[in-house]
Specification:
With 382 residues, the chain is an alpha/beta fold. The chain has two domains: 115 residues, Alpha-Beta Complex (Aspartate Aminotransferase, domain 1), CATH 3.90.1150; 238 residues, Type I PLP-dependent aspartate aminotransferase-like (Major domain) (Aspartate Aminotransferase, domain 2, 3-Layer(aba) Sandwich), CATH 3.40.640.10. The strands form three sheets. The chain has a seven-stranded mixed sheet, sandwiched between helices. Strands 9-12-11 form a three-stranded antiparallel sheet, with no helix packed on it. Helix 4 links the parallel strand 3 and strand 4. Helix 1 packs antiparallel against helix 8.
Length: 382
C-alpha cells in the first residue's frame, strides 16, 4: 500500500516539524470528527440507548484484537493508562521469596514502580538488565533468565532509542523457565507489526495516545490464560455478566463477563472516547503497521546518513525501529543552543540527556528531516 500524501489527514501547519509522536500523537481529522460526534451525542442524552454503553466497546475491542492478532476480543480490556494495566497484572501475581523480576535498564517508570512494589511485598528481587557498548541487549536478557526468574517485564523496544528486542526468542525462554512474560507495547503497537499468536505474551499493555492516536486517558490490554480468573483492581458494574439488563442491575451478579472483560476500567463505554478510538484504529488498520514502518524508513534514511556524517551516532537499521530512534549528539555540540534553535524553527523532538529521540509518522516527510539536519548543522558550525 502506498502511503504518499497521507499528511492530508493531519492538521499540522507547513512551518511546523513535529517529530515527537512518541510523546503525544496529534489527532488526525477523522478522530476529531468522531470526537465532535460524541460530544453531540452527550449534548442530547435522550438519544443514548442502553446498547450504546456496550456495542461500541465490543467494536473497539475487536479492532484492537485484529491489530495485535488475537482471535478472541474478550481477551482485550479497555483501560485508562499503561500504569493501570501493569498494576492490574501485578495485582494478580504471587511470588516466592527470592524470585526475580527482570526489567530493562532505564525502563519507563510506569512499567517499573508496580514491579518494585510487588518485589517488596514478597521479598523478591528486581533484576535490571543493562548493556555496555559492544554488547547486545537480547544476549544479556536471555542470559539473565534462569529458574529464579518469575517475571520478565519489558517493552517491545527500548522507549528512549528504539532498540529492538527479540520478543519471540525471549518469550520461548521465559516459558522454558515457567516465568510470566509481560510486554509494554506503548511505543510500538500501531506503528510496528505485532502478533500475540507469534510472541505469546502473558499480557500486553499499551497506552492509546501514542502510536494508536487515541485520546489521552485511553489504553488497551491483552490478558492471557494466567489472568482468566484474576481479581480486577476495581469493581465496575458493566463488567459483570448480564449487565446489559439495566432493569436487573440490583440483582447483584457474582460472575464476571468472560476472560479479560473483568479488567476494563469503569466507564469504559465513554461515548466520546470510544468513537475517537474506533476511528483511530480503523485508519491504522487500513494503513497497516508494516507500511507505516516502511514509510518512516524511507523518509528518514537519507537524513540518518547525513546525521552520522555530522558526528551523530545512530544504531544500525537491523537492531532498531524506524518510527522511533535515538540520535546521540556530538560531544562538542552546545545543547542549550540546539534547543533554542529547534524552538525558534518550530522543530519538535524529545531530549534524553545527550540524545535526541526522533519519532515520526505519516504526518512527516523528508523535508522535516532535512530541517532537523540543517538545524544541527548550523549549531555545530558556530
Amino acid at each position: 500500500m502506498s502511503l504518499a500524501n497521507q499528511k492530508k489527514h493531519f492538521d499540522i501547519p507547513e512551518n511546523i516539524t513535529y517529530l515527537n509522536t512518541a510523546s503525544q500523537a496529534p489527532a488526525f481529522k477523522a478522530i476529531y470528527e468522531a470526537g465532535i460526534e460524541g460530544l453531540k451525542q452527550k449534548s442530547r442524552p435522550y438519544t443514548i440507548k442502553g446498547s450504546d454503553y456496550f456495542e461500541p466497546v465490543v467494536e473497539l475491542k475487536k479492532l484492537f484484537a485484529e491489530l495485535i492478532d488475537v482471535s478472541n476480543y474478550n481477551r482485550i480490556a479497555c483501560i485508562p493508562s499503561a500504569s493501570y494495566g501493569i498494576a492490574t497484572v501485578t495485582n494478580n501475581i504471587v511470588l516466592k521469596e527470592g524470585d526475580e523480576i527482570l526489567v530493562i535498564d532505564e525502563q519507563f517508570p510506569s512499567n517499573y514502580y508496580s514491579w518494585k512494589n510487588l518485589a517488596e511485598k514478597y521479598d523478591a528481587t528486581i533484576k535490571t538488565i543493562s548493556k555496555k557498548e559492544g554488547e547486545l541487549w537480547n544476549t544479556n536478557i536471555l542470559n539473565a533468565i534462569t529458574n529464579k526468574t518469575a517475571v520478565v517485564a519489558m517493552g517491545h523496544i527500548h522507549w528512549s532509542n528504539g532498540s529492538l528486542f527479540d520478543l519471540k526468542t525471549i518469550s520461548s525462554k521465559t516459558k522454558q523457565h515457567k516465568a510470566l512474560f509481560i510486554i509494554d507495547g506503548s511505543q510500538t503497537i500501531g506503528a510496528l507489526p505485532f502478533s500475540v499468536k507469534e510472541i505469546q505474551p502473558d499480557a500486553l499493555i499499551c497506552a492509546g495516545y501514542k502510536w494508536l492516536f487515541g485520546p489521552y486517558g485511553c489504553a488497551y490490554a491483552y490478558f492471557g490464560e494466567h489472568f482468566d480468573h484474576g481479581n480486577p483492581i476495581e469493581e465496575n458494574w458493566s463488567n459483570r455478566l448480564d449487565s446489559e439488563n439495566f432493569a436487573g442491575l440490583t440483582n447483584y451478579q457474582e460472575e464476571y463477563k468472560p476472560l479479560a472483560n473483568r479488567y476494563s476500567v469503569g466507564e469504559s463505554g465513554n461515548f466520546i472516547y470510544v468513537k475517537m478510538q474506533i476511528a483511530a484504529l480503523k485508519q491504522i488498520i487500513a494503513w497497516t503497521p508494516n507500511a507505516i514502518q516502511e514509510y518512516c524508513k524511507n523518509i528518514s534514511s537519507e537524513a540518518v546518513k547525513e546525521l552520522r556524517n555530522l558526528g551523530c551516532q545512530i544504531e544500525e537499521e537491523s537492531i532498531r525501529t524506524h518510527h522511533l530512534f535515538g540520535i546521540k549528539l556530538p560531544e562538542n555540540i552546545n545543547i542549550e543552543a540546539l534547543k533554542a534553535s529547534l524552538a525558534q524553527q518550530q522543530i519538535f523532538v524529545s531530549f534524553r540527556g545527550n540524545y535526541i529521540r526522533v519519532s515520526c509518522h505519516l504526518l512527516n516527510t523528508t523535508e522535516d528531516f532535512s530541517r532537523l539536519v540543517h538545524c544541527l548543522t548550523s549549531v555545530l558550525a558556530k
